Amino acid sequence: MGLIYQPAVPVSPGKLAVWLFLSTEIMFFTALIGTYIVLRFGAPEGSWPTTSAVRIVEWIGALNTFVLICSSGTIVFAFENARRDKPAQAKIWLLLTMLLGGAFLGIKAYEYGSKFAHGIYPRVPRSLIYDRPDINYLSGLKQNLSQEIRDLEETKASPDEQQKLETLYLLQLGMVGWTEQKVGSTDDPMMKRLAIESLAQQIYPISDPQTDERINTYVANEANEVQMLFGEENAKLKETELTLKSTQSDIGQLSGIKEPNDEVKSTLAQKTKLANQLTAQITALTKKTTLLRKRKEALEIFKDVHGGINEHYHLKLPMVIPSGNTWANTYFLLTGFHALHVFGGLVAFLVLCPKRLGASRAGLVENVALYWHFVDIVWIFLFPLLYLF
Amino acid sequence: MNETGQPTHKKNSPFIFIIVFLMLCALTGLSFWIGRSHLMEDKFTGWSAMMAVSVAKAMLVVLFFMHLWWERPWKYVLTLPAIIMGALLVLLLVPDIGFRTERYSQERNSSAAESRELTLDSVNSEDVHFER
């Protein structure tokens, strides 16, 4: 008696396996995308970065969507041709699909590159993103800046690097040092935050016209105040220096007297004491005016810097992007896993490539095509979620 | 039915695939347009519209490019439970993670992300105080 094999499902085992695999992939990506949605909409209100703040370019995402849709279309024709036993045409469509898949990855790599160039990385130690303009950020900035300066000082600097070093010194004193002094001198937590916020904005503006405008107003007002204060303090310094000079000449005259009586002695003692006090005052005033002058210089030089200090001077200083770390984590995880799947598809195409894609292999082409369409569907959801929301 | 148990779907001429492809392109353009249109003034309307467009695109791909329009629907036995399980997993996150900020302590809140708008709203950015 012969046994007859009865398949449980009326399809080839390969196709069943692909659908089973796709079901696990559905769970994988539902969990990833869903987690992103939950994290995103659960983030502190209004803090999720706008696309421009994290250097997302919408049309590049749209272009990539188009590229992937095209590749889905071409693989359909590869299968249709294989099914109709036209291996040569099938091969051409397959190669076209590979080309489009490669283009997708290329565009993706370019996008990643532009994020990395701005210091947007998924995690420390490379990530430069801070969630809030607070003391923690300020100290991170200070550390980063002094490290950068130390590194540059150690190397024998070229004129270009010397120029950069000058910029860094000015940043250190006129921006970070100034902000530190300001934060230390006020008890108002709001004013502390505003000072750090304006510093963060000058380093990496978040490109929201309204916010930028308000910070610019603050910086402009501060520039006026600094100008005025510098004038006052400088005049005070000059005056004190004059007083010191006259006191010193008095002291010279008095100590020139051959046989000083008690009165002369006590005046001399008084004048010497005064001179010491004045010297101390001058030291303090010099320190203050130096800081003010540096601040004045810094505000003038960094005022019209387009795209922020980081971009203009090709620096990678820590920056404040509210919820930026959660954004970077989810963005790189989602697009990274998707790109890995695209890469996997390309490997499968590469395996198919040397084979004769006739009717006998139509099933194989179809299975790979099913996987490729699934990868396309994932991107169909990722595109609006990551680029347009 | 051919040997793999599928209908030999004679009707799916290249014409239908081209139509579907053009529809997919048009829908991509539509979601891009929605992203810049006045629909985004009310975020939820814009988001819902975009997600609706995405679901439509996904359905087009599944039904035509993946042939489900012509094939037997046994795939749903695998994929629908997978979708439901995945969705449940995500829903389980909502109470703990989705509403996390509502249970933040004051201390935690003071180091949480805050929108720049909010920072600026809480202080008048035209004020510049100096200790003299």
Report what the structure shows:
The complex is a heterodimer of chains A (389) and B (132). Chain A has 389 residues and is mostly helical. Chain A contains 11 helices and 2 strands, in the order αααβααααααβαα. Chain A has helices at residues 13-41, 58-83, 87-117, 135-154, 159-185, 189-203, 209-256, 262-301, 308-312, 324-352, 362-388, and strands at residues 129-130, 319-320. In chain A, 37% of the residues are buried. The longest helix of chain B has 24 residues, at 75-98. The radius of gyration of chain B is 25 Å and the shape is elongated. At the A-B interface, helix 1, helix 2, helix 6, helix 7 and helix 11 of A face helix 1, helix 2, helix 3 and helix 5 of B.
Order of helices and strands of chain B: HHHHH
Count the E strands of chain B: 0
- Biggest sheet layout of chain B: none
Mean pLDDT of chain A: 91
Question: Unreliable stretches of chain A, pLDDT < 50, 5 or more residues?
Answer: none
Please give the largest β-sheet of chain A. Answer: 2 strands, parallel
Rg of chain A is 34 Å
Shape of chain B: elongated
Percent range of helical residues of chain B? 55-70%
User: Whole-number average pLDDT of chain B?
Assistant: 85
- Beta-strand percentage range of chain B: under 5%
- Which structural class do the helices and strands of chain A define? mainly alpha
| Low-confidence regions of chain B | 1-7
State the strand order across the main sheet of chain A: 1-2
- What is the rounded distance between the termini of chain B? 90 Å
What proportion of the residues of chain A is helical, as a percent range? Answer: over 70%
Give the chain pair forming the largest contact, with residue counts. A-B, 85 and 69 residues
